[in-house]
Design goal:
Order of helices and strands of chain B: HHHHHHHHHHHHHHHHH
Strand content of chain B: under 5%
Structural class of chain B: mainly alpha
Number of strands of chain B: 0
Largest sheet of chain B: none
Number of helices of chain A: 10
Number of strands of chain A: 13
Radius of gyration of chain B: 27 Å
Oligomer: heterodimer
Distance between the termini of chain A: 45 Å
Helix content of chain B: over 70%
Shape of chain A: globular
Largest interface: A-B, 57 and 59 residues
Radius of gyration of chain A: 20 Å
Shape of chain B: globular
Distance between the termini of chain B: 46 Å
Strand content of chain A: 15-25%
Number of helices of chain B: 17
Largest sheet of chain A: 5 strands, mixed
Chain lengths: 324, 482
């Protein structure tokens, strides 16, 4: 699907621009020339195609596909993971008009991060603001707030805000006090209450705050905007999994966000045209995740009275009292 | 001749006091042994549960992702609240020179020390990674409210230990001097302990002077420290955006709640020690009456802040806050909420307003309700807020969307409570539960006052006689010529 889109007239340049930008950030950080997996996949299908890439020292050059090969990035150091990617300000845009509540983002996220099924780092809520208003699906990742209530209260700096806007957790430092969990107004954080299941293939993986495994008991985890993927020039798992193109990801400094189809938009324009907003703006947390309102929806609205789950509760605005 | 009999009576009175207060020490009766045995069973069972929690993780508790703070944190707030007793009774009554404080200061200070000790343990029990506790030292961030708690609780703990220990020094010297038979190893240990703790106290004028001076300094320091402690304990909640916690009145609300539950705790302690060690002569009905007035005043302050805490948001019913309040007022927590409002706010005000309500037994019952209610109230502050997040609770495992502590949490908490009782019991078997020298001082002051009154009446009578004689002398000559 990606290759097809690459052939369209206007889009590939923008997309490559973003991709190369991401690659540069990643390669400078990793100190190595990074050729992403996306390129190597293309090589298998059509060899002999010239590709333009950045070198480590910032030079642009064109090379044949066959000269490019996969590069496994070594995990970044703790200091590097805490510093983040220089010059970037990552943002996510979620188009509620497009989201049909299929939860492919959640599934992709769980597969990517090897999370247990009860943990939805990106969770799709069925929302209705008032009884008289229309229901809609509301996917919610971590908002990576610029005024994060969670990192403020951490007593040991185990959860931190990076220069590229991402909020991460160092599960080798976390003492498990759960102050961040009670501080987060969006119920984004999950705690490892029990011994986490360790996948045999991951048992010997070196830990870095940029990936949340191996998990550790008694520590907190949450959506991390897939920094490992970003360093490889790829989109976070939820973005590329969205078949409705409802999730956009990009760099605020470049004012560009891209969706799963590889279509890149001007962020400011996208927000302006669609009256983009941020959830619970009045809390002042300054989220890095924007929403486009659910107008002219292209999907059946969520069945808000679905009783398939006893514990399911509708949006608090329309609730008269919470049953427990 | 008269003065000598007075001195004799005084000495006798002091001797009785010393016997009464040192009497219970080292009396290991059958009941004491059963009591300690029961406490040990509870503690050992709690330890076993804690080991289970350490091995399998906090998943063995009833806490889940929404209610990630439960009984442990509620109990932490409660114990820290009880620890405010010592400051109030001891420091405030000392600083205002209330004579009647003398027999109750020791038990109040002890209650502070012990509840603070176990209160401080509660958040450590609640940690997911207690093995990493040293990260607090290596990576500590002073911007975190939890760090403020650690700093202020440690300061308060050191302060209240000194505050407990300082007035014990003359009593330790007394114990040291009175323990003459040192045959067994245990007696030798006690002798060594008292000698060590007396710090070479001889009762010289300069020693008394220094003790008084340091007590005054500590009294002044400990009050703001105590206020700061419960203020920052409230900040771990108030510094979040959560409905119900996002409140500017939380600091004073917690301090008031702490003071009134703490002083109610002191009354329970007074009643128990009075009964157990036959101290009716020293801890009188008057003490209960006066403490009852203090609790009444504090309950009124608490009621006032309680009104502010609930009435202001309830009038506005802002979205998220409104849902929490609806749940508290008429939802799943309404029964507990209204029982607490009635039992811990209205009832104490009614009962303690009448002199009959301030009699020992009545006040004991009221105070037990207050203390138990204060504990439940902490729970109602912590848990319902966590069950009312901004995001709706949807499609989660069933046990995430409700909370009631399970046996692991109850057992560990009960073990901590048993720990408090055990330390107090052991303390009372080694050290006097009344500050002997302070009560002595009171007797001296009383005696001096009586002597002074006697001398004054005598002098006034003499003067009156003199004046009368003078008048008679003045008048008589005038009469004679007539």
């Amino acid at each position: 699907m990606e290759e097809e889109k690459d052939n369209s007239v206007n889009r590939p340049n923008r997309r490559n621009f973003l991709k190369i930008g991401l690659i540069t950030g990643g390669s400078i950080a990793a100190g190595a020339l990074t050729i992403t997996k996306i390129i190597s996949q293309e090589k298998k299908s059509e060899s002999g195609v010239k590709r333009t890439v950045f070198t480590q020292d910032g030079k642009v050059f064109t090379a044949d596909q066959s000269h490019l090969h996969d590069f496994e990035m070594p995990p970044v150091s703790n200091e590097e993971a805490r510093r983040g990617i220089e010059g970037k300000k990552f943002v996510m845009v979620l188009d509620l008009a497009k989201c049909d509540g299929c939860k492919k983002c959640t599934e992709a996220c769980q597969a990517m991060h090897f999370t247990e099924s009860d943990r939805e780092w990106i969770k799709v809520y069925k929302m209705r603001d008032a009884e008289t208003t229309a229901p809609y699906f509301f996917p919610k990742p971590c908002f990576h707030c610029d005024n994060p209530p969670c990192t403020k209260v951490c007593p040991v700096n185990a959860t931190f805000k990076r220069q590229d806007g991402i909020v991460l957790i160092d599960n080798e430092r976390c003492i498990g006090c759960r102050s961040c969990m009670v501080a987060c107004p969006y119920s984004t954080r999950y705690f490892n209450w029990n011994h986490p299941k360790v996948q045999p293939e991951l048992a010997n993986t070196a830990y870095s705050p940029e990936k949340s495994f191996p998990r550790k008991i008694g520590t907190v985890e949450k959506c991390d905007f897939c920094p490992e993927m970003i360093r490889q020039g790829k989109m976070p798992a939820c973005v590329s999994a969205c078949s409705m193109d409802a999730v956009y990801f990009g760099d605020q400094n470049e004012d560009a966000v891209t969706n799963a189809s590889g279509i890149t938009f001007k962020l400011s324009q996208l927000l302006e045209d669609n009256a983009g907003y941020r959830y619970l703006e009045e809390l002042g947390t300054d989220p890095r995740v924007y929403y486009l309102p659910p107008k002219n929806r292209k999907y059946p609205k969520p069945d808000i009275n679905d009783d398939s789950n006893d514990k399911k509760e509708t949006h608090h605005m329309e609730m008269k009292g919470m049953n427990m | 001749m008269e003065v000598k009999t007075e001195t004799y009576n005084l000495n006798q009175e002091i001797e009785t006091l010393r016997n009464d207060s040192l009497g219970p020490i080292n009396k290991w009766g059958r009941n004491t042994k059963i009591w300690i045995g029961c406490l040990l069973i509870v503690i050992i069972w709690g330890l076993y549960c804690y080991i289970q929690q350490l091995r399998a993780g906090l998943g063995v508790t009833a806490m889940r992702n929404y209610v990630s703070w439960g009984l442990y944190i509620s109990t932490f707030v409660f114990f820290i609240g009880i620890s405010h007793s010592g400051t109030l009774v001891s420091a405030i009554l000392r600083i205002t020179k209330q004579e009647w404080r003398r027999p109750i200061t020791r038990s109040a200070e002890l209650l502070t020390f012990v509840s603070l000790l176990f209160g401080g343990i509660m958040p450590i029990i609640d940690l997911g990674r207690p093995d990493r506790i040293l990260n607090l030292a290596t990576y500590g961030r002073i911007q975190s409210p939890l760090m403020w708690d650690i700093v202020s609780i440690c300061t308060y703990f050191v302060g209240s230990s000194v505050f407990l220990f300082l007035p014990m020094i003359p009593d330790m010297a007394l114990c040291r001097d009175r323990l003459t038979i040192c045959n067994t190893r245990f007696q030798k240990f006690r002798k060594w302990l008292y000698t060590f703790m007396a710090l070479g106290w001889k009762g010289t004028k300069s020693q008394w002077h220094r003790l008084e001076k340091s007590m005054t300094i500590m009294t002044i320091i400990i009050i703001p420290v105590a206020v700061s402690v419960h203020t920052v304990v409230s900040y771990i909640f108030a510094m979040t955006l959560r409905p119900g916690w996002n409140s500017t009145v939380f600091g004073p609300y917690f301090v008031a709640g702490a003071l009134y539950s703490g002083s109610a705790g002191v009354i329970i302690g007074m009643w128990v020690f009075r009964k157990l060690y036959n101290l009716e002569k020293y801890i009188t009905r008057r003490h209960f009456d006066l403490m009852g007035r203090i609790v009444l005043a504090l309950t009124l302050i608490y009621a006032y802040l309680n009104l502010n805490e609930y009435w202001i948001p309830a009038y506005k019913m802002a979205t998220a806050e409104g849902h929490l309040l609806t749940d508290l007022f008429s939802g799943s927590y309404s029964t507990v909420f209204w029982i607490l409002q009635f039992g811990t706010v209205l009832l104490p005000i009614i009962v303690l307003s009448f002199p009959k309500g301030r009699r020992p037994l009545m006040i004991l019952i009221t105070c037990i309700i207050i203390v138990a209610g204060a504990w439940a109230k902490r729970y109602v502050i912590v848990v319902p807020t966590l069950l009312h997040p901004f995001m709706p609770i949807q499609e989660v495992p069933g046990d995430w969307s409700s909370y009631f502590p399970n046996y692991i949490e109850f057992s560990i908490t009960a073990a901590c409570l048993a720990g408090i009782f055990l330390v107090i019991t052991l303390f009372s078997k080694f050290f006097p539960m009344m500050a002997v020298w302070e009560v002595e001082e009171g007797i001296h002051i009383e005696h001096d006052k009586n002597v002074a009154i006697e001398i004054r009446t005598k002098r006034e009578a003499e003067e009156a006689l003199l004046i009368r004689n003078q008048i008679q002398k003045d008048i008589e000559p005038k009469i004679q010529p007539a």
